[in-house]
């Protein structure tokens, strides 16, 4: 592990190929980089997203700290596949041909599209096979009741603050179904429109009742005034929420969340926030 070199934008060769195979296998190749051993901009973006997910320094440089978390995640997948009788080969942290074939066999056996990558549905089936919460079967809703109770309480506090500021703020999405999330992920990739998310179904906090989207309305219509969104964002933060306007990857003005320090892989792996 300690012998892995630091690599970054412009690097090439064996370790870049390893990096790309691991990111791709863990379903982090949102932007379609080639597994060619060239550390290009798309590879760098995927690295930064991975670093965000694990609260690592978001600099796009793959040094020991990032290597360790990445390889550990691949090792965990390989060990589980092997334990379940899907032969991923020697657990070595390299998401190569044997691991990909094992994932495909696992997906076929579980009625999941056989992509060979550990997408969120595959992750849940592998890490949390006895899931009793059925998040992936719940419908999209704008109701606060569809949220985690702590997040719902913060949302009520937030709405009260906006009324004190004489704003007409409305929540238009709270829980989002996993299939609706998949449709959003497709947009800008294989359906028309701009890219709006890097999250597949199961990989957004909306899919766990930990996020909602809101907008200021004026004369019955959603405002286009960015300063109103900024004020709304400040009030959400006052209520204890994280605001999407502060995001570094895709800035998301209507978005509020509380993650309880969990990333979506924790949630898929079966870890639950307080109150559930
Ligand atoms: Zn959102």
From TrEMBL:
Domain Peptidase M15C, residue spans: 199-257
SUPFAM superfamilies documented for this protein: Hedgehog/DD-peptidase, PGBD-like
GO molecular function, one term: peptidase activity
Residue ranges occupied by any Peptidoglycan binding-like domain in the UniProt entry: 16-70, 72-126
Name the UniProt record assigns to this protein: Peptidase M15
Record organism: Ferroacidibacillus organovorans
């Amino acid at each position: 592990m300690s012998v892995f070199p630091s690599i970054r934008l412009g690097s090439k060769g064996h370790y870049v190929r390893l990096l790309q195979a691991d990111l791709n296998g863990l379903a982090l190749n949102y932007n379609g980089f080639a597994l060619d051993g060239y550390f290009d901009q798309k590879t760098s973006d995927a690295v930064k997203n991975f670093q965000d997910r694990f609260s690592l320094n978001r600099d796009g440089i793959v040094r020991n700290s990032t290597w360790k978390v990445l390889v550990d995640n691949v090792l965990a997948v390989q060990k589980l596949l092997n334990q379940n009788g899907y032969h991923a080969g020697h657990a070595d942290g390299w998401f190569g041909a044997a691991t990909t074939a094992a994932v495909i066999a696992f997906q076929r056996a579980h009625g999941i599209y056989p992509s060979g990558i550990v997408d969120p549905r595959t992750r849940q089936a592998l890490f949390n096979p006895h899931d009793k919460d059925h998040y992936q079967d719940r419908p999209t809703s704008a109701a606060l009741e569809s949220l985690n109770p702590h997040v719902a309480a913060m949302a009520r506090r937030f709405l009260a603050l906006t009324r004190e500021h004489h704003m007409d703020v409305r929540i238009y999405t709270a829980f989002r179904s996993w299939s609706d999330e998949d449709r959003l992920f497709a947009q800008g990739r294989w359906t028309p429109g701009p890219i709006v998310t890097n999250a597949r179904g199961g990989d957004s906090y909306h899919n766990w009742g930990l996020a909602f989207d809101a907008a200021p309305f004026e004369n019955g219509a959603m405002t286009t005034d960015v300063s109103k969104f900024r004020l709304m964002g400040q009030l959400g933060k006052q209520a204890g929420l994280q605001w999407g306007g502060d995001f570094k990857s895709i800035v998301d003005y209507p978005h509020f969340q509380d993650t309880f320090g969990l990333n979506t892989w924790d949630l898929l792996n079966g870890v639950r926030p307080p109150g559930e």
